[in-house]
Amino acid sequence: MKFRAFALTYLFISCITYSFAQQRPYYTQYILNNFIINPAIAGIENYWDVKASHREQWVGLDGAPVTSYLTIQGPLSKNTMSRENATSIRPEGENPRGRTYMEGYQSTDPHHGIGLTFLNDRTGPLNRFALTGTYAYHLPLNERTSISAGASIGIQNLSLKTTELDFGTAYPVDPVVGSNSLINTIRPDISLGVWVYNARWFTGLSLQQIVPEKVGFNTGKLGGDSITVIGGKLVPHIFLQAGYKFMLGEDISFLPSITAKYVNPVPLSVDVNAKFQYRDLLWVGGSIRPKDGFAAMIGVNISNSINIGYSYDITNSRLNTVSNGTHEFLIGFLLGNNYGDWCPKNVW
């Protein structure tokens, strides 16, 4: 009996440790909302940008990650141009994001940006809910290039739903878990970022979860001795991003980009992305994660107030035999859009 209890406890600890290896959610459509990765994005546009996303990873696999978030970010004290009688009707004429726009692009005036993020990420019996507030400051480097720096500070609640754990019929309750149906731990969630951008290119560096901490869920009894389950350690995540915009004609642009992610001790992960956009109306794209998988994406700017995006991921791993890919949906709202922008001004 004691051996079985020890074995179950060991498996329980191993399960938690493995699950926390994916401590931050994966995203495919961050190219539509880099704010979810880098806090320096807050306030970069002329409007308030609201994004809601839902992602179901490895559909068909029981306990696979499910992630939803809502982000709100916008500028403060920013001097912006306004179009008289801006409407949701797309104006006729040349591409508003074409060569003429690129040639006349100017760097931003110094201004502040703020934002909020609500995020819920569930993997099997483990759940992470995070609430963070963001501040960023933007200033020009020269006539055409700007730089911003930002920070997000908040809390994350990590919970374990013990009713979803199965220890078998002979020993249905693990002594470490006890009789609690839900156990929680709260930790700080702090991120930092910097972003350099103009009409042609961008590059950014961000650090998420910069405070490394051990995660302990519960103290229980095993063989008369008190023990504490340590579910793992929250470790920093480092993201490096860069992209460049090419005009393939007056109406079509091509934006290749790359995102590198490093989490010690996991090997470096790299996304290679490509996005083709028709005027400021429609875009299609793809993403490749070497040795992991690839994704296809599509998005439509319905008006200067609403845009939507969808992506489908396929993994190259053995999970492909027991799951049906990954779906991610995103909808965006542009509030206070006095200039009547149909798509972001700053590259992506």
From TrEMBL:
Q: Does the keyword Secreted apply?
A: no
InterPro entries per the record?
PorP/SprF_Bacteroidetes
Spell out the Pfam families in the cross-references: PorP_SprF
Signal peptide start and end residues: 1-21
- Keyword tags: Signal
Name this protein carries in UniProt: Type IX secretion system membrane protein PorP/SprF
- Organism, as annotated: Limnovirga soli
